[in-house]
Fold:
Amino acid sequence: MTAHPDYDIFIIGGGAVGCAVARELARYQVTVALAEAAPDVAAGASGRNSAVIHAGFNNRPGSLMAALCVQGSRGFPALCDELDVPYKITGKLLVAFDEADLATLRRLKDQGDRNGCRGLRLLDREELRARLPRTGGIGAMESPFTGVFDPFQYTVALAENAKANGVDFYLSHRVTAIEKGPEGFAVTAGGTVFRARRVVNCAGLHSAEVSALAGIEGYRIYPCRGEYFILDKTDVLPMPIYPAPKQGAGGLGVHLTPTIHGNLIIGPSAEYIDDPEDTASTGPVLDRLFREAVQLLPGLERKQIIGAYCGVRPKQAPPGEGGYWDFVIREEEACPGLVNLIGIESPGLTASVPIARMVAEILGRGMDLVPDPSFDGHRTGILRFKDQAPAAQAALIAADPDYGEVICRCQTVTRAELRQAIENPLGVKTVAGIKYRAWATTGRCQGGYCLPKIAQMLTEDYGLAPEEVTYRGEGSALFTGRVK
Ligand SMILES: Cc1cc2nc3c(=O)[nH]c(=O)nc-3n(C[C@H](O)[C@H](O)[C@H](O)COP(=O)(O)OP(=O)(O)OC[C@H]3O[C@@H](n4cnc5c(N)ncnc54)[C@H](O)[C@@H]3O)c2cc1C
Structure:
């Protein structure tokens, strides 16, 4: 086993929260490392969700969830601008189908007002029809500052900016042991022992296990799966529409959400499962999703479906109880120096940066966090050909002929963009990592045309042997050998 130089702070988990914590700590004169079990960031819930910037009316007044979500929602546009992440403030409608739903909407409006959400408004049947003629329902609540964004690119952007500001990333490094000594912690990750003064546990679904590695037992995470359908590009819906939520449900109800990339997603379901890694899509649940979606937006057709995916919530509320328990974000008294983040379910993406600030504040009580004047929070992402005006496209092609070759036809992604995705600052070379960075293979043909071309770029341009090309790391090789 190899030993590694010391760090001041060691973060476990490279989801949106771990990466936000990494970026937040990069503002200070401390050495920071982040270990992620998967070969890329955003491999857990952060890459598998509804991608909604929540306003904060769903959460109990006085809870961390409410306060951090409202802060996150207000800061999200500026944050996305700083990190070059696509987002759009669309607004959102919560639709009522009966009197009980209308009462729920009144309660949510009151709760949202108390939480500091801006502009919440109740709409009657006529106003709802005028806003969305195809929608069923007898009334609605409008939340004008809800939005949508790309959560994968968001997490990548946080990580890249943290790395540019000095944080070391260790991908494919699962943490398997944590020992607490008088001087701090010895953390074993990917077979290497790292020494650190402080440890921040952002391990999502595995946060209770990671806490137990450090000797803090007693947390329990119940995985709760949410399945989705992805529909082909459409402009039928300008904003997310949700049903009024039901008491004690594991999630917010099956909703329809236009994605930042122009597709529509239906979901998620809420089903408690045993295996946190079980991200299967299942026929009966998907059938039910579609039925519920048609109630919200009559006229949807199954032939519009191009894919399915699912995400798993790290719930603290047990199956019989449902609903939400508040985020746990605390330094453990029985293990000073360990900051645990437990049960970071929705709205964890929206709240990720305020959560990270709270972690920095907790750490700052026990160690000097001196601002680093060289910190630069700006990050530039891949320059998207299809988003440019014709003159700018011509200039791009003149400067770099690879902008003139479209590799993903469904999403108009050029060779130049894929090259930038492959040369990503975190050094990720999986097909999934390139797919989500460049947004290739995600269209109607689901990679039928461009996936082999991307694999070819990885082998011919970047020197990987075909057998080394994987979809998502170990166990997902795309090729097993030559046939001729
Ligand atoms: C179905 C669904 C819909 C959602 N919709 C929204 C939404 O619209 N808006 C919103 O704001 N929030 C939403 N959320 C919530 C949001 O996705 C999560 O709160 C957020 O992504 C949590 O981020 P995280 O970094 O804590 O966890 P994760 O993204 O799960 O990251 C944890 C990471 O830790 C790693 N890890 C685990 N164990 C170890 C170990 N031993 N060593 C090293 N690494 C380890 C994992 O591989 C993983 O990458 C949704 C969640 C789900 C499941």
In short: The chain has a mean pLDDT of 95. The CA atoms of residues 125 and 198 lie 54 Å apart. Residues 64-83 form the longest helix (20 residues). The chain has three domains: 1-88+148-220+316-381, 89-147+222-314, 385-468.
